[in-house]
Amino acid sequence: MSLRHALLGLLVEHPASGYDLLKTFSTSLANVWPATQSQIYGELTKLADSGLVVVSDQGPRGRKEYTLTDAGLAELRHWLAETEPQRSTRSEVLLRVFFLGVLTPEQARGYLESLAGHATATHAELAALHDAVDWDDDNLSVYGRIALEYGLRFTAMQQEWAEWARTQVRTS
Amino acid sequence: MSLRHALLGLLVEHPASGYDLLKTFSTSLANVWPATQSQIYGELTKLADSGLVVVSDQGPRGRKEYTLTDAGLAELRHWLAETEPQRSTRSEVLLRVFFLGVLTPEQARGYLESLAGHATATHAELAALHDAVDWDDDNLSVYGRIALEYGLRFTAMQQEWAEWARTQVRTS
DNA sequence: TCTAGCATGTAAACAGTTACATGATTGC
DNA sequence: GCAATCATGTAACTGTTTACATGCTAGA
């Protein structure tokens, strides 16, 4: 139940509405844990039902602002410190690689080139983001920078791998 | 619908039963696309209903052997060549990094050290696998080796990143 | 006034996990 | 005979996606 904990984690910083959290997901958190509008609103309702967050304010247009409770913070700490992360991930990109043999070598190389291109583009975006943000030494900055560095290293690795892989496919 | 295509992809090589495919998933494919027994049996039934595979043989103990049809191969090729892979993946490991600030620096470093350890161990397993297999130059070998190389590079990157990240967390 | 963006909610479908349930066959 | 493993299936639940549905408010 990671979405639940992602929401609790975001509410540590400051209270926020479903809409606010949706924005955060679609920008910063989308890379590690995509979530849809339906999912976020639904999960917030459940979180409030179980007392991990409370509706602390109501604004115009039916806006509900959620605040983390002590129980919510305790649950977040419990999740982080006392449960094991699920380490395995699904990669459709890599799954396809296994089956490239059913395509022509040209098509297979095309696929790998396209992967390299996407990796390069994403790397550039992350590098721009890295330059744009002014990194303080607060928690958010420290761990945000660590996560971003992961992205930079990951996309660099992907690009190099895809370029190498292309050379491994026999030429027609 | 990647599971569907993963099954079609495996059936390209040779006919297999649900049980055979389950073994393949739990060994080789589990790293890129984990699947449970329930899911595989259910999906094979649907695949047979839609004519992408056929039950080509029945063995002892109710064993059903599935064979890829022309329609199935066409569908696999279509998926590979004419649809875009979903590039984003969920990473609970990385999601947690964003929230390490709610733990003590000691706990945060502990988490990162544990990630480095797991990455090292997985890297070693993959390296052993790489040495154990004798790589031919057929399609399976070429693309299997490419996928394995991805795993090696990925786990190496993760380990280096986690070790670097640990140094970024202020000491108590 | 009208458009863009704020703001929430629900329903249906699909994908994935866990647990239960059953039984046959092979080899010791 | 018995244990291990082969072999399949179903039910309930959880998580995720897509689509529909509604309405308010601030600013040009």
Tell me what the structure shows:
Two copies of one chain form a homodimer. Chain A is mainly alpha-helical. Chain A has two domains: 3-82, Arc Repressor Mutant, subunit A (Orthogonal Bundle); 92-168. The first copy, chain A, contains seven helices and three strands, in the order αβααββαααα. Chain A is elongated and about 65 Å long. The N and C termini of chain A lie far apart (47 Å). At the A-B interface, α1, α4, α5, α6 and α7 of A face α1, α4, α5, α6 and α7 of B.
Let me know the number of strands of chain A. 3
Query: Helix tally of chain A?
Result: 7
Oligomerization: homodimer
Number of domains of chain A: 2
What summary fits the major beta sheet of chain A? 3 strands, antiparallel
**Uncertain runs of chain A with pLDDT below 50, 5 residues or more?**
none
Architecture per CATH nomenclature, i.e. the level-2 architecture of the largest domain in chain A: Orthogonal Bundle
What percentage of residues of chain A falls in helices of 4 or more residues?
A: 55-70%
User: What's the mean pLDDT score of chain A?
Assistant: 94
Question: Radius of gyration of chain A from the CA trace?
Answer: 20 Å
| Class computed from helices, strands and strand pairing of chain A | mainly alpha
Spatial strand arrangement across the major sheet of chain A: 1-3-2
**CATH superfamily caption of the largest domain in chain A:** Winged helix-like DNA-binding domain superfamily/Winged helix DNA-binding domain
Gross morphology of chain A is: elongated
SSE order of chain A, one letter for each helix or strand: HEHHEEHHHH
User: Which fold does the CATH topology of the largest domain in chain A refer to?
Assistant: Arc Repressor Mutant, subunit A
Most extensive protein-chain contact, per-chain counts: A-B, 60 and 59 residues
Could you tell me how far the N terminus lies from the C terminus of chain A, measured between alpha carbons in angstroms? 47 Å
In CATH's first tier, which class of the largest domain in chain A applies?
Answer: Mainly Alpha
